[in-house]
Amino acid sequence: MLRENPLLRKGLTVGQRLMYFATMWSYLSGFAAVIYIAAPIIYLCFGVLPVQAFSLDFFLRLIPFLVMNQLLFLVVGRGVKTWRGQQYSLALFPTWIKALTTAFNNVVFGRPLGFAVTPKTKQEWSPQWGMIRPQLWAIGLLCFAAVIGGVRLAVGQAQVGGTVVNIVWVGFDLLLLSVIIRAVLYRGFSADPPIDNPEKGAPF
Questions:
Q1: In sequence order, what are the residues at sequence separation of 6 or more whose Cβ sits closer than 8 angstroms to the Cβ of residue 182?
Q2: By residue range, what is the domain housing residue 79?
Q3: What's the first-to-final CA gap in the chain, in angstroms?
Q4: What burial letters (b/e) apply to 165-204, b meaning 16+ CB within 10 Å?
Q5: Is residue 2 part of a domain?
Q6: Does 59 map to a domain?
Q7: Is residue 66 part of a domain?
Q8: Which of 68, 91, 111, 178 could lock 105 by a disulfide, CB 3.0 to 4.6 Å apart?
Q9: Does residue 195 sit within a domain?
Q10: What digits encode the pLDDT tens for the residues 130-167?
Q11: CA dihedral for 162, 35, 30, 136, sign (positive or negative)
């Protein structure tokens, strides 16, 4: 996008320009995810609304959009489950941000792109919690905000509607981010299934 912007390239159709641009634009989702995570935290802790329209008109526009968004995933997925992709689109926000800032520094400031060499031999397994530190902070802050929101509601410092909506929002964020916990605890695929009884062979 920075070197050969598809919107300005000659010889491409409008559809091709939009498709290439959408691929590059998707890396900005990391910053959108930060806002998506921060918004309910800010409201539950400080009472600052992300939008000034918790009214019937707002939900008449928001709910159809969310429903159509999920239906679109079902249509384009053609039977393939897309939920895991939706989870990673939020949970990998540090990766998207780092990819974008690294590319920007490479093009604008001429800094070399980093490359991490993966080990080629079997390593002793242990959870790499340090790799998901930003996500763990996000999960912790979301849980903390939900508790604070409940306390503020109990003492009469918060509105019922806004608090309930944002606590549900927190729950949805936590559901999306939970995939990163499963990922860091994943031990890898074992090609040989365990044999319960050697005489009978592997169980089916």
A1: none
A2: 27-113+125-184
A3: 50
A4: bbbebbeebeebbebbbebeeeeeeeeeeeeeeeeeeeee
A5: no
A6: yes
A7: yes
A8: 111
A9: no
A10: 889 999 999 999 999 999 999 999 999 988 988 998 99
A11: negative
Closest CA to 94 of 143, 142, 136, 43: 136
Place of tokens 């918004």: 39
Amino acid at 144: F
Mean pLDDT score of the chain, rounded to an integer?
Answer: 83
Which one is predicted more confidently, 114 or 43? Answer: 43
For residues 145 and 170, the answer to whether their CB atoms sit within 8 Å is yes
Instruction: Output b/e per residue, 101-140; b: 16+ Cβ within 10 A.
Output: eebeeeeeeeeeeeeeeeeeeeeeeeeeeeebebbbebbe
Residue type, 76: V
Place of tokens 């080990």: 119
Place of tokens 């980093």: 114
Which tokens in the block code for residue 143? 């849980």
The residue type found at 130 is G
